[in-house]
Design a protein that fits this description.
With 180 residues, this protein is an alpha+beta fold. 21% of the residues lie in helices and 38% in strands. The chain has two domains: 42 residues; 127 residues, Sandwich (Immunoglobulin-like), CATH 2.60.40. It starts with 9 loop residues before the first helix and ends in a 5-residue tail after the last strand. The chain binds copper (II) ion. The site of copper (II) ion has 8 residues, from loops. This is Cytochrome C oxidase subunit II. Keywords: Copper, Membrane, Metal-binding, Transmembrane, Transmembrane helix.
Length: 180
C-alpha cells in the first residue's frame, strides 16, 4: 500500500473514513425516504375521507337550488338530501367567513359542495381532508367528498382576501353514526 504525503497507513485510514461517511449518508437518505413514506401512509390511513369528483362552471347558483347571486345563505342552512347517504350544500365565501357554518354532516355521508364567493377570490379548504376548491365570484366550483370519520373539521381560506383573511374560519361537524 503506497503512502500519501509520506505518512504510513494514511491511505487506509482515508478510505475507512470515506466509507464511514458514505454509510452515514446512505443511512440519512434511508431515514428521509422512510419519513416521506410514513407521512404518505399517515395521510392515506387517517385522511377523513376521499374526493369523489370535482368540477367548475359558470352558473347561476339558483339553477342548482342555491341562493341568488350575491346572497349569503342562512347560517344554519344544512345539507339537502339528494340520495341514499348523499347530500348537497351551497357553500358561500364572503369577507370574512363561510356560510353555512357550523355545518353538520352525518358520518359516512357523501356530500357535494357547490362553492362560490359573493365578493372576492377565496379558497375553500377543509383541514385534514383533500378538499381544496377556489371560490370565485360568478363561478360555481364543485367538489364531492365522502366523510369517513366523525369529528370536527376546520374550514380555512387559502387565498389571501383582505385584512381578516387569517380569521376566515368555518366549521364542519361530522356527527357519529347512531349505534345500529
Ligand atoms: Cu377569504
Amino acid at each position: 500500500m503506497s503512502d500519501i504525503a509520506g505518512r504510513p497507513g494514511f491511505e487506509d485510514a482515508f478510505h475507512k473514513a470515506a466509507e464511514r461517511h458514505e454509510r452515514a449518508w446512505v443511512f440519512v437518505t434511508l431515514v428521509m425516504l422512510m419519513g416521506i413514506l410514513a407521512c404518505t401512509m399517515y395521510f392515506v390511513v387517517y385522511d377523513y375521507g376521499v374526493v369523489v369528483r370535482t368540477a367548475a362552471y359558470r352558473s347561476d347558483p339558483t339553477a342548482l337550488g342555491g341562493p341568488a347571486p350575491g346572497v349569503v345563505p342562512a347560517a344554519d342552512a344544512g345539507l339537502v338530501k339528494t340520495g341514499p347517504n348523499a347530500y348537497a350544500v351551497h357553500m358561500v365565501a364572503h369577507m370574512w367567513g363561510w356560510t353555512p357554518s357550523p355545518l353538520h354532516i352525518p358520518e359516512g355521508a357523501t356530500v357535494t359542495f357547490y362553492v362560490t364567493s359573493i365578493d372576492v377570490l377565496h379558497g375553500f379548504e377543509v383541514k385534514g381532508t383533500t378538499i381544496n376548491v377556489t371560490a370565485v365570484p360568478g363561478i360555481t366550483g364543485e367538489v364531492t367528498y365522502m366523510f369517513k370519520h366523525a369529528g370536527t373539521l376546520d374550514i380555512i381560506c387559502n387565498e389571501y382576501c383582505g385584512i381578516e383573511h387569517q380569521a376566515m374560519l368555518g366549521r364542519i361537524i361530522v356527527d357519529p353514526k347512531p349505534p345500529a
